[in-house]
Amino acid sequence: MKLLLIHASKFSYRIxxxxxxxxxxxxxxxxxLENVLVVFTTVENGDNxxxxxxxxxxxxxxxxxxxxxxxxxxxxxxxxxxLAPPHLARELLIKLEEKLLEKTSGVFRxxxxxxxxxxxxxxxxxxxxxxxxxxxxxxxxxxxIKKKFVILTPxxxxxxxxxxxxxxxxxxxxLVDKEVFGVELPGGVNRVNDYxxxxxxxxxPMSDHGHMRYGPHAAMIMDLxxxxxxxxxxxxxITVYRVMGTNMFNLNEKPVYEHAVLFGDRLYELNVDNExxxxxxxxxxxxxxxxxxxxxxxxxxxxGVFEIADSYRxxxxxxxxxxYRARKFYMPDLHVLTKNLDEAxxxxxxxxxxxxxxxxxxxxxxxxxxxxxxxxxxxxxxxLLEYVRNENYPVLVAIIPSGIYYWVINVEYHIxxxxxxxxxxxxxxxxxxxxxxxxxxxxxxxxEKKHVVIIHTAIIGSVERFIYALFDTAAHMEKSxxxxxxxxxxxxIQVRVIPVSSSYMDYAIKIAEEISSxxxxxxxxxxxxxxxxxxxxxxxxxxxxxxxxxxxxxxTETLNVRIRRDGVQKIMILKELIEILxxxxxxxxxxxxxxxxxxxxxxxxxxxx
Length: 609
What we know:
- One of its GO terms (biological process) is threonyl-tRNA aminoacylation.
- Its cofactor is Zn(2+).
- By secondary structure, this protein is of the alpha+beta class.
- The radius of gyration is 31 Å and the shape is elongated.
- It contains 16 helices and 28 strands.
- A hairpin with a 5-residue loop joins strand 19 and strand 20.
- Helix content is about 30%, strand content about 30%.
- It folds into 3 domains: about 1-135, 3-Layer(bba) Sandwich (D-tyrosyl-trna(Tyr) Deacylase, Chain: A); about 150-190 and about 220-310 and about 330-470, Bira Bifunctional Protein, Domain 2 (BirA Bifunctional Protein, domain 2, 2-Layer Sandwich); about 490-609, Anticodon-binding domain (Rossmann fold, 3-Layer(aba) Sandwich).
- The strands form 6 sheets. It has a 10-stranded mixed β-sheet. Strands 1, 2, 3, 4, 5 and 6 form a 6-stranded mixed β-sheet that branches.
- The two termini are about 55 Å apart.
- The longest helix has 20 residues, at about 340-360.
């Protein structure tokens, strides 16, 4: 906050015209004061009530020293190039006036957001012209959110985390140790990082650290997960609209600013044309900005809005982890609009079941952290218990004071990864604040406007975190002595055909073309390498089905198929292989091959494997 303080024998102003849309009601058109300390005030980015308190102390001190009869707080945007958003500046100027009135009388404030002409006669003594820059220091106190933790079991029993028997629930113990007791978990070499790099997921060294790049294999996997996230959402049984939007929002917009403050300090900010913008950290801003313009009837609810949003979070450098914690990632973000808390609860049960079903498809289960407000915990214990019964597993509940966040319940779904650490993948939350903040309304049965209650969810998590869960599942396989692999639907190359020699290339091509015509990703290893080398290379790429063709296969019109998951080799006809592929990929998306079909054409890509 910048202050220019002038002790004036006379000061007067007159309103001329509105300067900004956020201008407050002017009240008096003019004012004239004598023996007044005029406080020309600029509110800057980062200013808060702590800054206001410091400014009050400075102003009162100077008023007493110059023996002024009056104080006039005069909004003046010309003392800084780093202006706070108008709504925040206005709020803090009002606070400044109120806090000054608590200390002294004769306090006035010129209206915010207007062009004004003024006349000033300065006394001219040594203290009549002073300037102050009020800045935040290390004394600023961040709000410490005190949480109370309990374990809630499916039979409705509550336990202190210190007294719970974890013998049957080792995954829950890992989560509790981290979240409640702050135990330093053992860690170790995370095989997922090796797998990510193997398949072409890596940091981009020419960018801000935490931004990833994707080679052809990684790009195929990314696109498949994006397509699948849309399939998952459409399968919920409710109407869903898919949208697209921008990733940059103006912090001068009050709802954007307020939502950003609630999110925290992991924001990417940039200045453009003397205005501050924030890069979105989820799809909320865009979808809410759209939805406030929609005309919605109670008959339309519930319905969802979906976007795969490129999202940005300024994570701490030491916390960055490939495919799990990145500074730019892709969020398949679904927001479901509902009429009230009861409808949100019923709809969220559908979402909860879908979240659990999706993780079970890859052979995993979640351990859950339920963040709930104190009023929700006390008043809606029956809802909370129904969620936990659906989990069929005890959950950790963190009870926080009411009125801090926009949600009343925020559920984090964690896997325990291959190095024994909880990793949040999926989530849902019930939001009772942003309907009002963004003015998203519907017309109820009585033709009255009501604000919606919103469910936020990422059913499979971010695209990258879902991929992390897939690779982590492979890491668990390897740790238990099994062959690590990916599900067939998401394996970049689903089938590789290897002719024993060039004499059998025509048959290999015929087989590959037939498999490709059914929508599967197939390639041909036509390199001048030994058969053993080519089979080993296919293994390093985790290809689910490797087809070797030679003289016997050509004569019998069969295939010699090596199956990675089972570690077996079978003779089958092409129709059998295609049926296996169809069964293993049913309900999942398909995409083209992002590489040349012939391995001899893939210059420079073999380094990955």
